[in-house]
Amino acid sequence: xxxxxxxxxxxxxxxxxxxxxxxxxxxxxxxxxxxxxxxxxxxxxxxxxxxxxxxxxxxxxxxxxxxxxxxxxxxxxxxxxxxxxxxxxxxxxxxxxxxxxxxxxxxxxxxxxxxxxxxxxxxxxxxxxxxxxxxxxxxxxxxxxxxxxxxxxxxxxxxxxxxxxxxxxxxxxxxxxxxxxxxxxxxxxxxxxxxxxxxxxxxxxxxxxxxxxxxxxxxxxxxxxxxxxxxxxxxxxxxxxxxxxxxxxxxxxxxxxxxxxxxxxxxxxxxxxxxxxxxxxxxxxxxxxxxxxxxxxxxxxxxxxxxxxxxxxxxxxxxxxxxxxxxxxxxxxxxxxxxxxxxxxxxxxxxxxxxxxxxxxxxxxxxxxxxxxxxxxxxxxxxxxxxxxxxxxxxxxxxxxxxxxxxxxxxxxx
Length: 414
Fold this sequence. Notes:
The chain is of the alpha+beta class and 414 residues long.
């Protein structure tokens, strides 16, 4: 049974999402994408958006049980069919510089056990139709937010030993904790946290290391950096000059590598879930920026299909640093969800880079961005590479090595 305290926390969570995360501007329209499992949360988000001055809030629902029913019963040659309305509507809002909010609340096991060809076709079709929205997001063309929310399916995955009637409440309480809702002053806690992340970025931007070296079990990787690269936190400024915290929760600072200057081998330290399908024990080899070999103990076929999406999907678009002692890591939970798991661990991403990782990148053409070292792809797939056994060093242009992380923790003081 949901208590008064639960609804107070849910409302505060929605307020943080709208004010700290999305930063809705007076007169903006807001588009919210969410599953039918979170009608109550979507109402709280809409209410807070209107209180912040939104002139219209459009909630776009999709239903996972219906998606599952489709895979159970639809013809196997029908998975190129797609609801064009969802991504088309979000693209229209994004093009109009309206605020885009995605509630991350899907079932990690949704597509588990279904025909791999059907799953691949479904995911490929979805990627194609969302590509215009992805371009808006990656180019920071408007203020946007991805925020987590609990569902019965996800809660059952995270708390299998907990009685069924208590699982959802337990997951919500964990999410509130990770989002600093239990702090005496959640807004102040977020402001202090984001400032700390931004201070880390200032340090790394001043250093302008030529490369970063990752060393750990199964990992010996040199990640070259482009000239005039720029480290940022999840607090990003859109091309419309609106600051938004694009992920809640967030614990990372990130940048993008030189797409042609990554060499060595890296091993994943956590599983990743792509559209409900699991990839685990991933090992990737790079030469001159390009993936030359890849294997996975679980989900290798899916990984290969991701790599074959386009030329950019075989190159890195992101490097992110997260201390092993982050609240999400300390929770001891594997969330089977990139929004959470990437904020428990240092990670890399295959595929598209955010434009702001190179100074002036937002104003570059695609050709100019690639020439400067940025990567372009229809994909952006994060995989976790950090742990308490992984060290990260910054390599200067003169070849000196300086510690950045030791045993998964920051090795420099601010």
